[in-house]
């Protein structure tokens, strides 16, 4: 059908999930003509290489089977044993070729669609025995293409048969002049060449059928825009699930952020609503890096971690608000705020030196913030 249940046209290509779900149900692109061509082509090549050995063994088995003494003819047990041995010999002669064909049959699906095992594809469905559904399939585009391919194969087989017969007519008529095994060898050679030419013709049909089967498979799985939206919704999950995922992601991000607070050089605070942690290494960093920031409860948590690890906390309301708004996590501070941050870092370094020397602490700086970077207190 060209439309889905909601009446929307199925104009969109199938998504990877749609293709994956279809493969799980056994719905993959398949070309019977590609499989037939593969089996015929490689089978004829296998006969070409194994034929001489098979004919020699067959000749030996047939010769031995027809050599029976007069006493053995009257022995039922001997005849039964001889017949059983002949059948086993025939199977062993054909076994390499049969194994080759089994291998080709198992590998050929990989050429198009791959292996797909699904119990749903072999389950009973009423529409499979519905005559009206069958008539609809027969008179569909796919049915027309199948009819055309059947006609082409009929023409191909007829052409190969007529060509081989007329080309080898003299050889066929002279077979009666030779011994049984010589005639068998020549007949076998004609059969192999006929299979090879027939397989080459099937290559042309497979080249036509494979693109058509891919097109039909893709067309069958086309989706409407609403189906794509529904699939995305199901894939991403329900709103409450996505909300929980975002919450967990935020908690993980906060946990990683808190791990960086002990490595900070200074915590600049509001003091009650904002906390910003900065780290600066003169040898490796171009500018100070904001490693943690937060408001309210997170701001208090940053200050608690800083106090636990003896990280300096400097109160500068304007600078804390400006850094919080204008700098993202794990990013360098903006250039216009270099001077203000430098004053705070210089104070921290001087404070550490004063404590180490037992001197009086320097005065807390009051850095000026550029007008365009000033942030009013949040209400």
Radius of gyration equals 42 Å
Q: Output the helix-strand order.
A: HHHHHHHHHHEEEHEHEH
- Side by side, the strands of the main sheet go 4-1-2-3-5
Individual helix count: 13
Please estimate the helix content.
Answer: 55-70%
C-alpha geometry? elongated
Strand proportion: 5-15%
How many individual β-strands?
Answer: 5
Largest beta-sheet details: 5 strands, mixed
Mean pLDDT: 79
Class based on secondary structure composition and strand pairing: alpha+beta
Unreliable spans are: 1-6
N-to-C terminal Cα separation, in Å? 59 Å
How does this model look, in words?
The chain has 379 residues and is an alpha+beta fold. Helix content is 62%, strand content 6%. The protein has 13 helices and 5 strands. The chain has helices at residues 16-24, 32-65, 70-73, 76-107, 131-138, 141-167, 169-173, 180-220, 225-236, 239-260, 297-308, 317-326, 338-357, and strands at 266-269, 274-279, 289-295, 312-315, 331-332. A 5-stranded mixed sheet has the order 4-1-2-3-5, sandwiched between helices. A hairpin with a 4-residue loop joins strand 1 (266-269) and strand 2 (274-279). Helix 2 packs antiparallel against helix 8 and helix 6 (141-167) runs antiparallel to helix 8 (180-220). The longest helix has 41 residues, at 180-220. The model is unreliable at 1-6 (pLDDT under 50).
């Amino acid at each position: 059908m060209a439309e889905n249940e909601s009446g929307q046209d199925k104009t969109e290509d199938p998504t990877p999930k749609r293709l994956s779900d279809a493969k799980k149900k056994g719905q993959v692109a398949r070309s019977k003509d590609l499989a037939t061509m593969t089996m015929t082509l490689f089978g004829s090549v296998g006969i070409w290489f194994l034929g001489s050995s098979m004919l020699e063994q067959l000749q030996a088995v047939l010769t031995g089977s027809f050599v029976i003494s007069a006493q053995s003819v009257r022995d039922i047990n001997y005849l039964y044993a001889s017949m059983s041995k002949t059948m086993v010999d025939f199977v062993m002669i054909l076994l390499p070729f049969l194994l080759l064909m089994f291998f080709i049959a198992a590998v050929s699906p990989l050429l198009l669609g791959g292996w797909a095992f699904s119990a749903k594809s072999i389950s009973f469905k009423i529409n499979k025995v519905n005559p009206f559904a069958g008539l609809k399939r027969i008179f569909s585009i796919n049915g027309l293409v199948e009819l055309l391919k059947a006609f082409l194969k009929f023409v191909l087989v007829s052409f190969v048969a007529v060509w081989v017969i007329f080309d080898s007519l003299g050889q066929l008529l002279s077979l009666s002049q030779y011994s049984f095994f010589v005639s068998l060898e020549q007949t076998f050679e004609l059969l192999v060449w006929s299979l090879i030419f027939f397989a080459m013709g099937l290559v042309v049909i497979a080249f036509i059928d494979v693109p058509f089967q891919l097109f039909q498979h893709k067309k069958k799985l086309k989706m409407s825009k609403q189906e794509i939206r529904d699939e995305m919704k199901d894939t991403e999950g329900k709103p409450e699930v996505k909300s929980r995922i975002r919450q967990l992601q935020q908690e993980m991000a906060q946990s990683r952020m808190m791990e960086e607070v002990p490595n900070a050089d200074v915590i600049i605070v509001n003091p009650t609503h904002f906390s910003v942690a900065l780290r600066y290494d003169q040898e490796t960093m171009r500018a100070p890096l904001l490693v943690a920031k937060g408001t309210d409860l997170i701001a208090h948590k940053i200050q608690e971690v800083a106090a636990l690890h003896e990280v300096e906390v400097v109160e500068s309301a304007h600078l804390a608000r400006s850094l919080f708004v204008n700098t993202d996590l794990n990013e360098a501070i903006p250039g216009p705020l270099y001077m203000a941050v430098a004053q705070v870092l210089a104070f921290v370094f001087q404070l550490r030196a004063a404590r180490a020397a037992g001197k009086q602490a320097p005065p807390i700086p009051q850095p000026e913030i550029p007008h365009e970077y000033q942030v009013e207190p949040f209400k």
